[in-house]
Amino acid sequence: MTTAPMPEFPAGFRWGVSTSAYQIEGAVGADGRGPSIWDTFAHSPGRIADGSTGDVACDHYHRYREDVGLLAGLGVSAYRFSIAWPRVQPTGAGAATPAGLDFYERLVDELLGHGVDPVATLFHWDLPQALEDAGGWLNRDTAARFAEYADLVAARLGDRVKLWITLNEPFIHMSLGHGMGVHAPGRMLLFDAFPVAHHQLLGHGLAVSALRARSGSPVAIANNYSPVRVAGDTDADRAAGAAYDALHNRLFTDPLLGLGYPDGPGFDEGVVRAGDLDVIAAPLDVLGVNYYNPTGIRAAEPDSPLPFEIVPLEGYPRTAFDWPVAPDGLRDLLVDLRDRYGAALPPMQVTESGCAYDDVPDADGRVDDPDRIAYLDGHLHAVRAAIDEGVDVTGYFVWSLLDNWEWAEGFTKRFGLVHVDYATQRRTPKSSYAWLRDRVIKP
Ligand code: FCB
Q1: Which residue of 166, 274, 288, 293 shows the fewest CB atoms closer than 10 Å?
Q2: Is 352 marked active-site?
Q3: 338-352 pLDDT, tens digit each
Q4: Closest listed residue to residue 32, CA positions, set 108, 85, 81
Q5: Which ligand 1 atom minimizes the distance to the CA of 415?
Q6: What is the predicted pLDDT for the residue at 265?
Q7: Nearest atom in ligand 1 to 20's CA
Q8: How many Å apart are CA 408 and CA 292, to the nearest integer?
Protein backbone atom coordinates (compact mmCIF):
# COMPACT_ATOMS: atom_id res chain seq x y z
CA MET A 1 0.00 0.00 0.00
CA THR A 2 1.37 3.43 -0.87
CA THR A 3 0.78 6.41 1.36
CA ALA A 4 1.64 10.08 1.09
CA PRO A 5 5.14 10.90 2.33
CA MET A 6 5.34 11.03 6.11
CA PRO A 7 6.16 14.50 7.40
CA GLU A 8 9.37 14.72 9.39
CA PHE A 9 9.18 14.42 13.14
CA PRO A 10 11.39 16.43 15.52
CA ALA A 11 14.91 15.11 16.14
CA GLY A 12 14.94 12.69 19.07
CA PHE A 13 11.27 11.77 18.65
CA ARG A 14 10.77 8.40 20.36
CA TRP A 15 9.37 5.63 18.14
CA GLY A 16 8.16 2.61 20.02
CA VAL A 17 5.73 -0.25 20.34
CA SER A 18 3.77 -1.33 23.43
CA THR A 19 2.71 -4.64 24.96
CA SER A 20 1.58 -5.81 28.39
CA ALA A 21 2.58 -8.76 30.54
CA TYR A 22 -0.61 -10.81 30.80
CA GLN A 23 -1.40 -10.30 27.11
CA ILE A 24 1.86 -11.83 25.83
CA GLU A 25 3.94 -13.59 28.48
CA GLY A 26 2.14 -16.86 29.24
CA ALA A 27 4.21 -18.97 31.68
CA VAL A 28 1.74 -18.10 34.40
CA GLY A 29 3.11 -20.73 36.78
CA ALA A 30 6.81 -20.19 36.07
CA ASP A 31 9.43 -19.25 38.62
CA GLY A 32 7.12 -18.64 41.54
CA ARG A 33 4.65 -16.25 39.86
CA GLY A 34 1.48 -15.92 41.90
CA PRO A 35 -2.04 -15.71 40.44
CA SER A 36 -3.41 -12.35 39.35
CA ILE A 37 -6.99 -11.18 39.02
CA TRP A 38 -6.76 -11.82 35.29
CA ASP A 39 -5.87 -15.50 35.82
CA THR A 40 -8.92 -15.82 38.03
CA PHE A 41 -11.19 -13.89 35.67
CA ALA A 42 -10.05 -15.66 32.48
CA HIS A 43 -10.58 -19.04 34.12
CA SER A 44 -14.13 -18.12 35.17
CA PRO A 45 -16.67 -19.55 32.69
CA GLY A 46 -18.32 -17.08 30.32
CA ARG A 47 -16.01 -14.14 30.90
CA ILE A 48 -13.86 -14.33 27.73
CA ALA A 49 -15.36 -14.25 24.21
CA ASP A 50 -13.58 -17.38 22.95
CA GLY A 51 -13.16 -19.10 26.31
CA SER A 52 -9.38 -18.66 26.14
CA THR A 53 -6.95 -17.59 28.87
CA GLY A 54 -3.53 -15.94 28.99
CA ASP A 55 -1.93 -19.15 30.30
CA VAL A 56 0.29 -19.37 27.21
CA ALA A 57 -0.61 -16.25 25.19
CA CYS A 58 2.40 -15.46 22.93
CA ASP A 59 4.78 -17.46 25.17
CA HIS A 60 6.87 -14.31 25.27
CA TYR A 61 8.34 -15.35 28.64
CA HIS A 62 10.29 -18.03 26.77
CA ARG A 63 10.58 -16.27 23.41
CA TYR A 64 11.58 -12.79 24.50
CA ARG A 65 14.89 -12.95 22.59
CA GLU A 66 13.08 -13.57 19.32
CA ASP A 67 10.67 -10.74 20.14
CA VAL A 68 13.47 -8.31 20.93
CA GLY A 69 14.94 -9.31 17.56
CA LEU A 70 11.66 -8.23 15.96
CA LEU A 71 11.88 -4.88 17.77
CA ALA A 72 15.44 -4.37 16.61
CA GLY A 73 14.45 -5.27 13.04
CA LEU A 74 11.66 -2.70 13.18
CA GLY A 75 14.14 -0.04 14.21
CA VAL A 76 12.21 1.36 17.15
CA SER A 77 14.14 3.31 19.75
CA ALA A 78 11.88 2.20 22.64
CA TYR A 79 9.83 -0.74 23.83
CA ARG A 80 7.01 -0.30 26.32
CA PHE A 81 6.32 -3.54 28.23
CA SER A 82 4.71 -4.14 31.59
CA ILE A 83 6.01 -5.92 34.65
CA ALA A 84 3.71 -8.52 36.17
CA TRP A 85 3.34 -7.58 39.82
CA PRO A 86 2.65 -11.24 40.82
CA ARG A 87 6.00 -12.30 39.33
CA VAL A 88 7.76 -9.84 41.62
CA GLN A 89 5.55 -10.34 44.70
CA PRO A 90 3.35 -13.45 44.29
CA THR A 91 0.95 -12.25 46.99
CA GLY A 92 1.48 -8.52 46.50
CA ALA A 93 3.44 -8.09 49.72
CA GLY A 94 6.80 -8.94 51.23
CA ALA A 95 10.20 -9.56 49.70
CA ALA A 96 10.68 -9.81 45.94
CA THR A 97 10.90 -13.21 44.27
CA PRO A 98 14.36 -12.95 42.67
CA ALA A 99 13.47 -15.23 39.73
CA GLY A 100 10.61 -12.93 38.74
CA LEU A 101 12.84 -9.90 38.61
CA ASP A 102 15.50 -11.96 36.83
CA PHE A 103 13.19 -12.29 33.84
CA TYR A 104 12.73 -8.54 33.51
CA GLU A 105 16.44 -7.99 34.00
CA ARG A 106 17.18 -10.39 31.11
CA LEU A 107 14.60 -8.58 28.98
CA VAL A 108 15.94 -5.12 29.83
CA ASP A 109 19.53 -6.15 29.14
CA GLU A 110 18.53 -7.76 25.85
CA LEU A 111 16.79 -4.50 24.83
CA LEU A 112 19.75 -2.35 25.80
CA GLY A 113 22.05 -4.71 23.90
CA HIS A 114 20.00 -3.94 20.77
CA GLY A 115 19.91 -0.20 21.37
CA VAL A 116 16.23 -0.18 22.41
CA ASP A 117 15.20 1.93 25.44
CA PRO A 118 13.22 -0.11 28.01
CA VAL A 119 10.00 1.68 29.01
CA ALA A 120 8.46 -0.22 31.92
CA THR A 121 4.83 -0.02 33.04
CA LEU A 122 4.42 -1.19 36.63
CA PHE A 123 0.70 -1.94 36.58
CA HIS A 124 -1.16 -3.05 33.48
CA TRP A 125 -4.17 -4.50 35.38
CA ASP A 126 -2.74 -7.80 36.68
CA LEU A 127 -3.20 -7.24 40.41
CA PRO A 128 -2.01 -10.11 42.64
CA GLN A 129 -5.14 -12.10 43.54
CA ALA A 130 -4.19 -12.04 47.23
CA LEU A 131 -4.55 -8.24 47.21
CA GLU A 132 -7.94 -8.52 45.50
CA ASP A 133 -9.00 -10.92 48.23
CA ALA A 134 -8.23 -8.12 50.69
CA GLY A 135 -10.39 -5.63 48.74
CA GLY A 136 -8.08 -4.79 45.83
CA TRP A 137 -8.13 -1.17 44.74
CA LEU A 138 -11.23 -0.56 46.86
CA ASN A 139 -8.88 -0.93 49.81
CA ARG A 140 -6.68 2.10 50.49
CA ASP A 141 -3.86 -0.21 51.64
CA THR A 142 -3.33 -1.39 48.03
CA ALA A 143 -1.86 2.05 47.25
CA ALA A 144 0.86 1.50 49.86
CA ARG A 145 1.47 -2.04 48.59
CA PHE A 146 1.91 -0.64 45.07
CA ALA A 147 4.58 1.81 46.22
CA GLU A 148 6.48 -1.02 47.95
CA TYR A 149 6.36 -3.06 44.76
CA ALA A 150 7.60 -0.04 42.76
CA ASP A 151 10.49 0.27 45.17
CA LEU A 152 11.46 -3.40 44.71
CA VAL A 153 11.42 -3.10 40.92
CA ALA A 154 13.35 0.17 40.88
CA ALA A 155 15.96 -1.24 43.28
CA ARG A 156 16.80 -3.86 40.63
CA LEU A 157 16.15 -2.02 37.35
CA GLY A 158 16.34 1.67 38.26
CA ASP A 159 19.69 2.10 36.54
CA ARG A 160 18.48 0.69 33.19
CA VAL A 161 14.79 1.46 32.62
CA LYS A 162 14.68 4.71 30.61
CA LEU A 163 11.09 5.73 31.36
CA TRP A 164 8.79 4.53 34.12
CA ILE A 165 5.04 4.34 33.66
CA THR A 166 3.27 3.77 36.95
CA LEU A 167 -0.26 2.80 35.86
CA ASN A 168 -1.84 1.86 32.57
CA GLU A 169 -5.27 3.39 31.98
CA PRO A 170 -6.58 3.65 35.54
CA PHE A 171 -9.90 4.87 34.04
CA ILE A 172 -10.41 1.63 32.08
CA HIS A 173 -9.40 -0.48 35.06
CA MET A 174 -11.93 1.37 37.19
CA SER A 175 -14.77 1.49 34.66
CA LEU A 176 -14.56 -1.86 32.87
CA GLY A 177 -13.05 -3.80 35.80
CA HIS A 178 -14.96 -2.37 38.74
CA GLY A 179 -17.89 -0.39 37.31
CA MET A 180 -19.22 -2.61 34.51
CA GLY A 181 -17.71 -6.01 35.33
CA VAL A 182 -16.43 -6.81 31.83
CA HIS A 183 -12.76 -6.87 32.85
CA ALA A 184 -11.12 -8.39 35.93
CA PRO A 185 -11.89 -8.33 38.77
CA GLY A 186 -15.44 -8.33 37.37
CA ARG A 187 -17.09 -6.04 39.89
CA MET A 188 -20.27 -4.18 38.81
CA LEU A 189 -20.33 -1.23 41.16
CA LEU A 190 -21.14 1.59 38.73
CA PHE A 191 -20.31 4.84 40.56
CA ASP A 192 -19.52 2.99 43.76
CA ALA A 193 -16.27 2.09 41.97
CA PHE A 194 -14.93 5.63 42.56
CA PRO A 195 -12.59 4.65 45.42
CA VAL A 196 -10.73 2.61 42.79
CA ALA A 197 -9.90 5.88 41.04
CA HIS A 198 -8.61 7.54 44.18
CA HIS A 199 -6.62 4.57 45.45
CA GLN A 200 -4.95 4.02 42.07
CA LEU A 201 -4.02 7.70 41.94
CA LEU A 202 -2.72 7.59 45.50
CA GLY A 203 -0.68 4.48 44.61
CA HIS A 204 0.67 6.34 41.60
CA GLY A 205 1.75 9.32 43.72
CA LEU A 206 3.42 7.14 46.34
CA ALA A 207 5.14 5.12 43.60
CA VAL A 208 6.49 8.31 42.01
CA SER A 209 8.45 9.06 45.20
CA ALA A 210 9.64 5.45 45.46
CA LEU A 211 10.87 5.53 41.86
CA ARG A 212 12.57 8.89 42.25
CA ALA A 213 14.43 7.63 45.34
CA ARG A 214 15.91 4.72 43.36
CA SER A 215 16.17 5.89 39.77
CA GLY A 216 17.12 9.01 37.88
CA SER A 217 14.84 8.12 34.96
CA PRO A 218 11.73 10.12 34.10
CA VAL A 219 8.32 9.04 35.40
CA ALA A 220 4.98 8.99 33.57
CA ILE A 221 1.45 7.57 33.75
CA ALA A 222 -0.46 6.25 30.73
CA ASN A 223 -4.04 7.50 30.66
CA ASN A 224 -6.75 6.52 28.23
CA TYR A 225 -8.47 9.49 26.59
CA SER A 226 -11.47 9.74 24.32
CA PRO A 227 -12.60 13.08 22.92
CA VAL A 228 -16.33 13.51 23.35
CA ARG A 229 -18.56 14.07 20.32
CA VAL A 230 -21.94 15.32 21.53
CA ALA A 231 -24.68 13.65 19.49
CA GLY A 232 -27.60 16.03 19.82
CA ASP A 233 -28.06 19.74 20.27
CA THR A 234 -30.01 20.13 23.47
CA ASP A 235 -28.61 21.54 26.70
CA ALA A 236 -29.18 18.10 28.20
CA ASP A 237 -27.01 16.52 25.48
CA ARG A 238 -24.24 19.05 26.11
CA ALA A 239 -24.43 18.50 29.85
CA ALA A 240 -24.21 14.75 29.30
CA GLY A 241 -21.14 15.31 27.10
CA ALA A 242 -19.49 17.38 29.82
CA ALA A 243 -20.31 14.72 32.44
CA TYR A 244 -18.75 11.99 30.33
CA ASP A 245 -15.72 14.16 29.58
CA ALA A 246 -15.18 14.76 33.31
CA LEU A 247 -15.36 11.04 34.00
CA HIS A 248 -13.22 9.71 31.14
CA ASN A 249 -10.82 12.55 30.44
CA ARG A 250 -10.54 14.64 33.62
CA LEU A 251 -11.14 12.42 36.67
CA PHE A 252 -7.54 11.18 36.58
CA THR A 253 -5.74 14.03 34.85
CA ASP A 254 -7.04 17.04 36.80
CA PRO A 255 -5.72 15.77 40.17
CA LEU A 256 -2.46 14.52 38.60
CA LEU A 257 -1.80 18.04 37.33
CA GLY A 258 -2.66 19.70 40.61
CA LEU A 259 -6.25 20.80 39.93
CA GLY A 260 -8.01 18.43 42.31
CA TYR A 261 -11.02 16.35 41.26
CA PRO A 262 -13.53 17.73 38.75
CA ASP A 263 -17.04 18.41 40.04
CA GLY A 264 -19.24 15.36 39.72
CA PRO A 265 -20.77 12.55 41.72
CA GLY A 266 -17.96 12.80 44.28
CA PHE A 267 -16.38 10.48 46.78
CA ASP A 268 -17.83 9.09 49.99
CA GLU A 269 -16.66 10.61 53.24
CA GLY A 270 -13.21 9.39 54.27
CA VAL A 271 -11.97 8.25 50.85
CA VAL A 272 -9.98 11.39 50.03
CA ARG A 273 -7.90 12.28 53.09
CA ALA A 274 -5.86 15.33 54.01
CA GLY A 275 -2.65 15.44 52.01
CA ASP A 276 -3.72 12.87 49.39
CA LEU A 277 -4.10 15.42 46.61
CA ASP A 278 -0.53 16.65 47.18
CA VAL A 279 0.77 13.09 46.91
CA ILE A 280 -1.19 12.56 43.69
CA ALA A 281 0.06 15.81 42.16
CA ALA A 282 3.74 14.80 42.40
CA PRO A 283 5.38 16.32 39.30
CA LEU A 284 5.31 14.10 36.20
CA ASP A 285 8.02 14.16 33.53
CA VAL A 286 5.79 12.86 30.75
CA LEU A 287 2.05 12.35 30.29
CA GLY A 288 1.34 9.09 28.45
CA VAL A 289 -1.66 9.34 26.13
CA ASN A 290 -3.44 6.18 24.99
CA TYR A 291 -5.90 6.95 22.22
CA TYR A 292 -8.17 4.69 20.19
CA ASN A 293 -11.34 6.60 19.30
CA PRO A 294 -13.73 9.40 20.21
CA THR A 295 -16.97 8.65 22.07
CA GLY A 296 -20.45 9.76 20.99
CA ILE A 297 -22.58 10.99 23.92
CA ARG A 298 -26.14 12.21 24.30
CA ALA A 299 -28.51 12.80 27.21
CA ALA A 300 -29.59 9.65 29.03
CA GLU A 301 -33.15 8.32 29.21
CA PRO A 302 -34.83 9.42 32.46
CA ASP A 303 -34.65 5.93 34.05
CA SER A 304 -30.94 5.41 33.27
CA PRO A 305 -28.49 4.83 36.16
CA LEU A 306 -25.91 6.89 34.20
CA PRO A 307 -25.95 10.66 33.53
CA PHE A 308 -25.18 10.11 29.81
CA GLU A 309 -25.76 7.63 27.02
CA ILE A 310 -22.98 6.34 24.77
CA VAL A 311 -24.05 6.26 21.11
CA PRO A 312 -22.24 4.86 18.03
CA LEU A 313 -20.52 7.51 15.88
CA GLU A 314 -21.65 7.40 12.27
CA GLY A 315 -19.62 8.21 9.19
CA TYR A 316 -16.27 6.67 10.10
CA PRO A 317 -14.58 3.51 8.82
CA ARG A 318 -14.49 0.89 11.58
CA THR A 319 -11.93 -1.60 12.88
CA ALA A 320 -12.64 -5.26 13.62
CA PHE A 321 -13.47 -4.11 17.16
CA ASP A 322 -16.13 -1.89 15.59
CA TRP A 323 -14.23 1.15 16.87
CA PRO A 324 -14.46 4.23 14.60
CA VAL A 325 -11.23 5.17 12.82
CA ALA A 326 -10.92 8.87 13.66
CA PRO A 327 -7.39 10.27 13.38
CA ASP A 328 -8.79 13.80 13.77
CA GLY A 329 -9.73 12.77 17.30
CA LEU A 330 -6.07 12.30 18.19
CA ARG A 331 -5.12 15.73 16.92
CA ASP A 332 -8.08 17.30 18.76
CA LEU A 333 -7.21 15.43 21.94
CA LEU A 334 -3.57 16.54 22.00
CA VAL A 335 -4.50 20.15 21.25
CA ASP A 336 -7.32 20.09 23.83
CA LEU A 337 -5.03 18.71 26.55
CA ARG A 338 -2.59 21.53 25.86
CA ASP A 339 -5.35 24.13 25.87
CA ARG A 340 -6.97 22.71 29.00
CA TYR A 341 -3.86 22.31 31.15
CA GLY A 342 -1.45 24.87 29.71
CA ALA A 343 1.78 25.21 31.67
CA ALA A 344 0.76 22.41 34.10
CA LEU A 345 1.04 19.86 31.28
CA PRO A 346 4.36 18.01 30.86
CA PRO A 347 5.49 16.82 27.41
CA MET A 348 3.24 14.07 26.08
CA GLN A 349 4.02 10.74 24.46
CA VAL A 350 1.36 8.70 22.70
CA THR A 351 1.89 5.49 24.66
CA GLU A 352 -0.74 3.46 22.75
CA SER A 353 -2.31 3.85 19.33
CA GLY A 354 -3.42 1.01 17.11
CA CYS A 355 -6.20 -1.07 15.61
CA ALA A 356 -7.54 -4.62 15.32
CA TYR A 357 -8.20 -6.21 11.94
CA ASP A 358 -8.88 -9.83 10.97
CA ASP A 359 -5.43 -10.40 9.49
CA VAL A 360 -4.83 -13.81 7.91
CA PRO A 361 -1.74 -15.14 6.15
CA ASP A 362 -2.15 -15.62 2.37
CA ALA A 363 -1.19 -18.80 0.49
CA ASP A 364 2.46 -17.74 0.58
CA GLY A 365 2.33 -17.05 4.30
CA ARG A 366 2.43 -13.25 3.92
CA VAL A 367 0.14 -11.05 5.95
CA ASP A 368 -0.98 -7.90 4.18
CA ASP A 369 -2.74 -5.36 6.42
CA PRO A 370 -3.38 -2.23 4.36
CA ASP A 371 -6.07 -1.05 6.79
CA ARG A 372 -3.51 -0.89 9.61
CA ILE A 373 -1.10 1.04 7.40
CA ALA A 374 -3.87 3.54 6.59
CA TYR A 375 -4.76 3.74 10.29
CA LEU A 376 -1.19 4.44 11.40
CA ASP A 377 -0.60 6.85 8.54
CA GLY A 378 -3.66 8.88 9.52
CA HIS A 379 -2.80 8.91 13.21
CA LEU A 380 0.82 9.90 12.61
CA HIS A 381 -0.30 12.80 10.43
CA ALA A 382 -2.63 13.76 13.30
CA VAL A 383 0.28 13.79 15.77
CA ARG A 384 2.33 15.85 13.33
CA ALA A 385 -0.58 18.29 12.95
CA ALA A 386 -0.71 18.73 16.74
CA ILE A 387 3.06 19.32 16.85
CA ASP A 388 2.61 21.93 14.11
CA GLU A 389 0.13 23.66 16.40
CA GLY A 390 2.81 23.90 19.07
CA VAL A 391 1.85 20.88 21.18
CA ASP A 392 4.83 19.19 22.83
CA VAL A 393 4.59 15.52 21.76
CA THR A 394 7.85 13.60 22.04
CA GLY A 395 6.98 10.00 21.19
CA TYR A 396 4.54 7.55 19.63
CA PHE A 397 4.11 3.87 20.55
CA VAL A 398 2.07 1.52 18.38
CA TRP A 399 -0.22 -0.92 20.15
CA SER A 400 1.02 -3.56 19.57
CA LEU A 401 4.19 -5.39 18.55
CA LEU A 402 2.45 -8.77 18.42
CA ASP A 403 -1.07 -10.05 17.98
CA ASN A 404 -1.94 -10.95 21.56
CA TRP A 405 -4.58 -11.91 24.12
CA GLU A 406 -7.02 -9.03 24.05
CA TRP A 407 -8.62 -9.26 27.52
CA ALA A 408 -12.35 -10.11 27.37
CA GLU A 409 -12.04 -10.61 23.60
CA GLY A 410 -9.46 -13.39 24.03
CA PHE A 411 -7.57 -14.17 20.83
CA THR A 412 -10.29 -12.80 18.55
CA LYS A 413 -8.77 -9.33 18.05
CA ARG A 414 -5.40 -8.94 16.32
CA PHE A 415 -3.61 -5.64 17.04
CA GLY A 416 -0.06 -6.66 16.06
CA LEU A 417 2.44 -5.36 13.55
CA VAL A 418 3.52 -9.01 13.73
CA HIS A 419 1.05 -11.85 13.17
CA VAL A 420 1.13 -14.69 15.69
CA ASP A 421 -0.05 -18.20 14.84
CA TYR A 422 -1.11 -19.28 18.33
CA ALA A 423 -0.92 -23.01 17.49
CA THR A 424 2.76 -22.85 16.50
CA GLN A 425 3.84 -19.50 18.04
CA ARG A 426 5.18 -18.58 14.61
CA ARG A 427 5.70 -14.83 14.25
CA THR A 428 5.19 -13.24 10.80
CA PRO A 429 5.79 -9.50 10.37
CA LYS A 430 2.81 -7.96 8.55
CA SER A 431 3.13 -5.43 5.74
CA SER A 432 2.48 -2.68 8.32
CA TYR A 433 5.72 -3.68 10.08
CA ALA A 434 7.72 -3.09 6.88
CA TRP A 435 5.81 0.14 6.19
CA LEU A 436 6.53 1.52 9.65
CA ARG A 437 10.20 0.60 9.40
CA ASP A 438 10.78 1.88 5.86
CA ARG A 439 8.44 4.85 5.60
CA VAL A 440 8.39 6.23 9.11
CA ILE A 441 11.19 5.13 11.40
CA LYS A 442 14.07 4.81 8.92
CA PRO A 443 12.84 6.44 5.69
C1 FCB B 1 -5.96 -0.57 25.80
C2 FCB B 1 -5.14 -1.46 26.73
C3 FCB B 1 -4.28 -2.45 25.98
C4 FCB B 1 -5.01 -3.06 24.81
C5 FCB B 1 -5.59 -1.98 23.94
C6 FCB B 1 -6.29 -2.50 22.70
O7 FCB B 1 -7.06 -0.07 26.49
O8 FCB B 1 -4.29 -0.67 27.52
O9 FCB B 1 -3.85 -3.43 26.90
O10 FCB B 1 -5.96 -3.93 25.26
O11 FCB B 1 -6.50 -1.22 24.69
Answers
A1: 274
A2: yes
A3: 999 999 999 999 999
A4: 85
A5: 6
A6: 65
A7: 9
A8: 17
